Amino acid sequence: MTFELSHYNAALLFALCASTVFGITQRSTPRDMLKYAAYCFALFAGGVIVAAWVMWFIKH
Amino acid sequence: MAQNATTVNQPQNATAASWTSMATIAPIAGWLFPGLGHFIQRRWIRGLLLMLAVCTMFFAGLGMQGKVYSFNVGDLLDILGFIGDLGSGLLYFLARVMNWGGGNIHRAVADYGTKYIVVAGLLNVIAAIDAHHIAIGKKP
C-alpha cells in the first residue's frame, strides 16, 4: 500500500494531526482546546507558506 | 480521639491508593495504544481524537513508505529515530512483526513518511503524559 501526497498536502496533514494532539493535551477546557488547536494549525500552515515564499525569494 | 483520626484517614488512604494505580496504569495504557489512557478514564472524545491523530500519522507514514527504525547502537539520529518510533507502543511492535516500514530511498516523500512515524510516536508520548495528568487530577 502506498500513499501519494504532494509536499504541501503532507505538510497540511502533519499540521492537522499535530495541532489536534497539541490542542487536547495543552489546554484544559474544550473551548480552549479548540482555539489552541486552530492557533497551532494556523501557525503550522502559515509557517509552510511563509517558508515557501522565503525560499522562492532566495532563489530569484 | 485517635480512633476518630484513624476513621477519618481511612477514606483518604483508599482514595490515594486508587489515585496511584490509575496514575500508573493510564500513561502505560496510553503508550501501548493511542487514546487508551483517556478511554479508561472515560474521556471518550479526547481519546478518540488522539487515537485518530496518532494512528493517521503512523499509517500515513507507512503509506508514504517511511522507515521504521529497529534497535541500533550506530548513528545518533538512528538511535533517536528508534526512541521516537518506540513511542507508538503496540503500533510500533505491529509494524516490526509485520515487517512494515522498510523505507524507500528513491522517493522524496518516503523521508516525510519516516518523520511522520517518528512524530506519531512522540505525540503519543505527549498524549500518555496527558492521561497521567488527568489521573492525578492536575487536569479535568
Tell me what the structure shows:
The complex is a heterodimer of chains A (60) and B (140). The termini of chain A are far apart. In chain A, 20% of the residues are buried. Chain A is built from 2 helices and no strands. In chain A, helix 1 packs antiparallel against helix 2 (30-59). Chain A has 60 residues and is mainly α. Chain A has one domain. The longest helix of chain A has 30 residues, at 30-59. Chain B has 140 residues and is mainly α. Chain B has one domain (2-135). Chain B is built from 6 helices and no strands. Chain B has helices at residues 2-32, 36-39, 44-63, 76-86, 90-97, 108-135. In chain B, helix 1 (2-32) packs antiparallel against helix 6, helix 3 packs antiparallel against helix 6 (108-135) and helix 4 (76-86) packs across helix 6. The longest helix of chain B is centred in the N-terminal third of the chain and has 31 residues, at 2-32. Chain B is elongated and about 50 Å long. Chain B starts with a helix and ends in a 5-residue tail after the last helix. Residues 1-11 of chain B have low confidence and may be disordered. Classes of the chains: A mainly alpha (60), B mainly alpha (140). The A-B interface holds A 1-5, 7, 10, 13-14, 16-18, 20-22, 24-25, 28-29 and B 46, 49-50, 52-54, 56-57, 60, 62-65, 108-109, 112-113, 116, 119-120, 123, 126-127, 129-130, 139-140.
